[in-house]
Amino acid sequence: MPTITPYSGAKGRVLQTDNATVVVFDLEPKMIIETHKHEVEQFGVVVKGSLAMIIAGEQRILTPGDTYRIPPGSAHALR
Prior knowledge:
This protein is mostly beta strands and 79 residues long.
């Protein structure tokens, strides 16, 4: 998988299928990714550090070992 930079301060790899996306990103500290949507499900796991994940208006603080699932079409953001 090639390395991509979808946002300034975020780089990583994406595994994309017709139905889901799995992401592995390194994010700069205090990075903010504004609210956006995807057409397919997205999955991820926090490996190091912490972040606030807002999915469909509900915020969760994620720390190492935590996983997340974003349903298709759900608005989500990172802080």
